[in-house]
Amino acid sequence: MAAAGVCRSSAREDLEKLSERCSLLCPDLCDRASRSSWGLKAAMVLLHVTFVGVVFLFDANLIRKTREEPWFTAVYLVVFVATLVQYFLTSGSSPGYVIDAMRAGNGSNTTYMKSPILKQSNSRNGNIISSTTQNQLERQSSYSTSFWSKLVMDLYPPGSAIRNWTCTYCNIIQPPRAKHCHDCDKCVLQFDHHCVWLGTCIGQGNHCRFWWYIFEETILCVWTVVLYITFLHSEIVKACLFCSYFGMLTISAWADLIRWKDFIAIVLLALLLFCLIFLLLLLIFHSYLALTNQTTYEMVRRHACILYLKVSVLWGIPEKVHPFSRGISKNLDTFCCPRGSRYTLEALPRMEELEERARPYTCIDIISCRCC
């Protein structure tokens, strides 16, 4: 018994040492959130490889076409790799957190947020922060907070209460169109939604990149559907020739018509068609959001008759008026080619601008491309 206990304790110590070494080599494996994120990425890669690999394994005509015309498969593989690369780039991109915009807006006044080197003084109770350094940090923090609050204050109409701007979770003053994400536990600029498949929020910083990922994924899905349909069509033609040779549809003909490869291809094709419909709807929806300078969160909250901009002056906006739209061309330019600072804070439009946008279109407005 004593020997067994000694063996168990030694085995436990070996496991602890091994886990410590693994944590030093791969710190992400010790974090549950990081493990789930990497597990999601591995599952997405495996899903893509499965759909693409099956059609190449089953379709002999595709293999022969690849040997005769290698450029066809090369272009397809380039689209496949580009889609996966875009997936990883989008999942690893920052949506534009308010705290980062606050640091960028404060400029040189963000020293206290970047883990400053604290002067320490030795005492009998150990190392403590000197009162002079602590007072200096408090002054820097209050100055930076006041600078950010003044910056955000200019974006709201006069008379708005500051308590309506402050996030109740992270206690950060939110600019217009910002929202707190409970999955990321941070406030996001121009919050659109939290994407489960990417494992990150979609906001001002990566909305355009997210659109390009959906676009590439749609192209890849369409091309893969065509490959599956071509494979099944060739199989049906073979079965029909077999049936015409025997003059009747026998049991052996049915067995040749529906083989296990064909059954797997039919199931995967059905899943691909479902994904394709979802991707097309998602691509059209986010294209509309880009053209009108909206987010999913704003659109959903607006149609739910809930105030999403936290300002009473924007109550009762007409349905066809988009508060932040500056025309199709300018919206696309801002969406695809942001200029200047990495973080853009948009001010709330005045009521006069909203009333002007709500004005009905005339022939002159159509000729002058008022919508653009």
Describe this entry's structure for a reader.
Helices cover 60% and strands 5% of the residues. The protein contains 13 helices and 6 strands. The strands form 3 sheets. It has a two-stranded antiparallel ribbon with strand order 1-2. Strands 3-4 form a two-stranded antiparallel sheet. A two-stranded antiparallel sheet has the order 5-6. A hairpin with a 4-residue loop joins strand 3 and strand 4. It is elongated.
Please describe the structure with a list of short key phrases separated by commas or semicolons.
5% strand, single chain, elongated, mainly alpha, 372 residues, two-stranded antiparallel ribbon, two-stranded antiparallel sheet
Topology:
Elements: H1 2-25, H2 32-58, H3 60-68, H4 70-91, H5 98-106, E1 120-123, E2 126-129, H6 131-153, E3 179-181, E4 186-188, E5 193-195, E6 200-202, H7 207-246, H8 251-257, H9 260-292, H10 296-303, H11 328-336, H12 351-357, H13 363-367
Antiparallel strand pairs: 1-2, 3-4, 5-6
Helix pairs in contact: 2-7, 2-9, 3-4, 4-7, 5-6, 7-8, 7-9
Rg of Cα set: 29 Å
Distance between the termini: 84 Å
The number of distinct β-strands equals 6
Query: Helix count?
Result: 13
Brief summary:
By secondary structure, this protein is mainly alpha-helical.
